Amino acid sequence: MVTDIKTAFEILLDELGAEIIARQEEGGDDATSRPIATQRKRKKQLDELVKARKQIVAIEKQCIDALRESTKTDASANEVAQSAPHNPGLQRRTPESSFYLPILEALDHLGGSASPREVIERLAITIGSRLSEIDRQRLASGRREERWQNTVRWARATMTADKRLAKSAHGVWVISERGRAWIRKRQNQLTLFDNQ
């Protein structure tokens, strides 16, 4: 049950995320030619969508925590959950956090900055074989983008917010010194783990 609910939230968040990205791209370079009132209205709408997405993430966590807690404390609920039909073939999408290191490594490999298309092409080569069937599904919003590509764009937004990526011009992703340090730290952790 928890898996089905998480999947439903993931689909909702992916679709809402695709819509936000589409509106951001729609407002790209020619936005300054629009009247100020129109620009403000579009910005307010976009801010509301981003705020709604954050609220949905919080609601998802609240629901999952409540379901897990109820199954811990209620033995009969646990029995019902165990007797529910199980789908061993159910795949999950790759979490956003799993893309952080590959994105940073791709940017580092590409000289420190690149277009989103270049980063996504590089990721298709380096991690494409590890993507699930769900990751490869096209988004229902009509964008010609696969689910994993949308998740990569959200990972980029997260890393820009926490300064692993530098804020840059529209259409260019740039690794920051903090991002390079994060790569070194992860690589050192992997090296330590391999030597144990």
How does this structure look, described?
This protein has two domains: 2-83; 96-195, Winged helix-like DNA-binding domain superfamily/Winged helix DNA-binding domain (Arc Repressor Mutant, subunit A). The chain is 65% helix and 4% strand. The chain has 196 residues and is mainly alpha-helical. The longest helix has 38 residues, at 36-73. Strands 1-3-2 form a three-stranded antiparallel β-sheet. The chain is globular. Strand 2 and strand 3 form a beta hairpin.
Number of helices: 7
Termini gap: 38 Å
Please identify, by name, the CATH architecture of the largest domain. Orthogonal Bundle
Number of strands: 3
Question: Could you name the key traits of this structure?
Answer:
mainly alpha; three-stranded antiparallel β-sheet; globular; 2 domains; 7 helices
Quick recap:
This protein has 196 residues and is mainly alpha-helical.
How are the elements arranged and paired?
Blueprint: H1 2-26, H2 36-73, H3 75-83, H4 100-109, E1 113-114, H5 116-126, H6 147-161, E2 165-166, E3 173-175, H7 177-195
Antiparallel strand pairs: 1-3, 2-3
